[in-house]
Every structure is written in structure tokens, then in C-alpha cells.
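Entry: RNA helicase
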Amino acid sequence: MELIIGKTQRSMVTLVSARLFLYVGDSLPLRKLSSLSSITGIHNSVRFQRSNDSNSGPLTLASLGFKPKVETTKRNKSNKLGQVNVAVEISKTKIKPVKSSGSKNEVKKFLEIEAAPFAAKTFSELDLSPLIIERLEREGFTVPTDVQSTAIPTITKNHDVVIQSYTGSGKTLAYLLPILSEVGPLKKKISNGDESEKKTGIEAVIVAPSRELGMQIVREVEKLFGPYDKKKVQQLVGGANRSRQEEALKKNKPAIVVGTPGRIAEISAAGKLHTHGCRFLVLDEVDELLSFNFREDMHRILEHVGRRSGADTSSSSKSALARWAERQIIMVSATVPFSVIRAARSWGRDPLLVRAKSVVPLESVPPGPVSSSSTTCVSTSNSMTQGAIESLPPVLKHYYCVTKPQHKVDTLRRCVHALNAKCVIAFMNHNKQLKDVVFKLEARGLKAVELHGDLSKLARSTTLKKFKDGEVRVLVTNELSARGLDVSECDLVVNLDLPTDSIHYAHRAGRTGRLGRKGTVVTICEEPEVFVVKKLQRQLGIPICACVFTEGKLIVSKEEQDHEPEQEVE
Ligand SMILES: Nc1ncnc2c1ncn2[C@@H]1O[C@H](COP(=O)(O)OP(=O)(O)OP(=O)(O)O)[C@@H](O)[C@H]1O
């Protein structure tokens, strides 16, 4: 599709693209950038079509299979969607406008997906490649989760997306499956049989903030690829031998690479990673990837992945935005603070916010947390805490127990026994104390092991394997294990130190109760810290009850039960 933009807009686009895209949060450049785009209407008035897009025409929510009366991507004077109170409900495949109960100024632009095609009952309803369906069945995956049912058709239709859904709800397969349907050995066969269309370069780059999470994603892809094709995915995680990774890239010509920002950026800067023709860029745990630590590496990745080489970034016939739009960007996390929404708006092409059973144009998301039933803004002052709302599985039980610092480890031991927990993750804030806690637990007869970033890559993977295999009962760790780590058997998370904020609480807590399983979170704290627990409770919208452990039982404190008698918890 030809792109026509005015001279002023073009110079602004160049200006925008020249900015460091990683200025997020409340930093000035991105604020400028988003206000710039809203002034110029760049995101809304310019449409792009990727070369491999078989569906001609603009990519809108209509192309998801609905016939909306509302054009979600246009926003001009004649289309007042961005200014008026319009909400749209989808029932089956029909959309009907409904009156908003909000104030006049409130932007109510959302699509509530109630039924088909998102409520798929089987994977075969989701237009995935037959080979993938076969492999999923082999792995025992038959029913897609809610977020998978929603995300898969949306990604398949080439939309840039932010996927937000609570921890352990299956977000990894939600983005992997539509990607694997398009690239690599399981992809759909090209119907006209034109083999020249076959690509051999890297077609998808998946970025994760830790080696553990990166390797976990690699294993998930390898499982689906099977033993013969497993080299078609290559890990590029830090701590591993870089020259071996470079050799593997050359020799195996993987279709997909998964890695940590530092190592991907490093190999890319050395000219050994050719990702300009890449079709998919996934940022898993996007809010973490946007943190200060990863700033420079992420800048390089965003600038290079999926951007054609040889293109003049300043004055080519295609604008910077157009080239940038050639890749599809998928951003994923259980916690999506508004800084992510803002960044995604500037990187994506009419990006959508995908949650279980709802798809919302990102443009319509007002500052503040997004509730599952609407785009209503809940009033809280801190955008960090806003991102944590609805990030936790509803089945989780949360408690706190007050104790003295010198009794924390003993309280942990009594907690493990009282709940008869088999697979426990205990979080602390400082590496130095982990060893001491492990020592004390072992001395009290609980098999424990420490995991933190100061260990070698080999030690980290061996430790994790032992824990996953059930050889140790308690993993004592720090924030390293809070993001994305999937140990389905984990039935108890204990905070031996308070997390820094509600987002960190949410990710730590989310290591248990995965995919509908039971899970308990216990925060062991000192008396003066109780107000922090109460604050977390308010910010997350969850009850965190005071408890004690006596005679091998968890007893919920009386005051927490609205004057009901003391209660034992199973
Ligand atoms: N459709 C499915 N059927 C059965 N199991 C599934 C399905 N989808 C995912 N799983 C399993 O559920 C577990 C949790 O999935 P996953 O790690 O993708 O969750 P997540 O939403 O990414 O969590 P987090 O936010 O903590 O990273 C994994 O063990 C995964 O293999």
C-alpha cells in the first residue's frame, strides 16, 4: 500500500524514529512522542500492509472476523469514536453499539468479546497449522485457555498486540502458536506450492529478561518442533558460550531465536545475527524489559529486528514508521503499567490490548488500570500499582504472618509443614542471605537450595532442574525467579522479605496456582511492616489475611474474620 504523508508529518516521523524509543514511564521524550502522534494523527491516518499479508486492505478489528460498524483505527473529525461515549458489545459474531454509563468526557471505546471465535473449545478452531494441532495433541494440550483463544486469532491477523493476562494463564503458547503456524518447520504449507517463498533467515526473535525464562521458552518450542527439528530454535541467553551460539546460528540457520536482551544485542552488534527480515518480535515480560537495566540493549533490538537492511533511515521513500511496521510486535506480561501502553502505542501499528475474552484498541486505553469488563479507569495514584491489577489467578489464597526477624526461617518451616506444601519458592531481597536460609532449613530437615544471579549458568540450570524434578522441597531465591518461571507443582510461595511493590508481589505470587491449580502465598513480615501488606492488599484488590502457625496448622487471626471464630485452614 502506498504511503502518502505530508512533509511536516514526514519530518516529524523522522524525528520520532530518531528518538530513543526506550524512554518510557514519565520520561519526557516519549510523552512528546505520544503527543506528537496524537497531533499529527500519524498512527491513525497511515496504514501499512506487509508484503506477506494475503488479506489486502487495512488491518482493523473488522479483519478479526467481525463486521464492526466502528472503524477503530481511524480517528478524524468525521469519526468521533475517540471523543464520544461509544461502547461496542460483541455477541456471537455481531456487534451492537451500547450506551455508556460513563461521563461525557470518558472514552469508552472497547470491544467485549463474549463468544466465538475467541471462545474456542479446541485448538483446531483457531486456524493453526495442522502440524501444530498434531503436536499439541501429542503434548496433551487440547483446550486453549481464554487468553489463547483471544490472542491466537488476533495475532494470526497480523495485529501488533499487548497481551495481558494473569500469571500462569498460558500466555507463552498464546503467542508461540500463531508464530509457529507461520514460521519454522511446523508452519502452514503455502497453498500454491511456491517453494521460492520459503524463507531461510531468522523469522522470529523472542526476548526475555532472564536466562531461565529464555531457556524455558526454548524448551517449549523444542517440545513442539520435536527431536528432528529442535535446532530450528536457537537460544541466545547470556552466561552461555557466545562463540558456540554464533556457530550454531551459522550452521543450523534457525527460524526462531530466543534470548536475553544483552546477548541478542551483543551478537547483533557483532554482525552475526541477521534479523532485518524478521517477521515477529516478541517482548516477553515487556514491563521488565523496559526497565532501565535493559535500556541500551532493547534500543538496539527495537531498531534492528525486522527492519530491512540497506534502507536509508532518514530520507528513503518509505518512512521510518513504514519500515518499522514491517515486523509484527507482540508484547506480553501479567502486569501492564501505563508506561507499557504508551511505549506500545509508539512502536506498534494500531496495536491492540488482548486480554482473556477482550480485545481493545490500545489508543482507547485511558491512563490507569484496565479492568476486565471495560476500559474504566480505577482511581489510584501510582501507575506502577495500576499495572498489577488483575494480574493474579483468582484461586490464590494470600496470608501474612507477623514474626521477629530471627524467627523467620522457623516460621517458614512451620508454614511448609502446616500447609503440607511439597514444592515451595521462598523469596528474599538480598543474595547474601539466601545461603544462610538454605543452611538453616537443611538443619531443620527441609531439603532446600539457593538460586540467584551470582551463580554460574550451569549451577543455575542444575539447581532449577533439581527443584523441578522434586529433589528439593524449598527453592530459596530472589527476584530472578519471580518472572515467568513455570514450575506447575509449586503449591506455596513465601515472601521472607517484602517485595518492593505490588507488581513484584504479583509476579512472585504468580509462581504458584498456575493454570487453575491451588496455591497459597504467605508473607512473613515484622510488625512495623504490616502497613505495607495492607497497602499491597488495597492495590492488588485481594484479601491478605493475618495468620499464625500453631500445632502444625495455619490459623487465620480472629480480627481478619469479621468477628467470626478462629478458623483452621486446610
Ligand atoms: N491450553 C493449555 N492446556 C494445558 N496446559 C497449558 C495450556 N496452555 C499453557 N499450558 C501450561 O500452563 C502453564 C503456564 O503457562 P505459561 O507459562 O505460558 O503462563 P504465563 O501466563 O506465561 O505465566 P507468567 O505470567 O507467570 O509468565 C505451562 O506449564 C504451560 O505448559
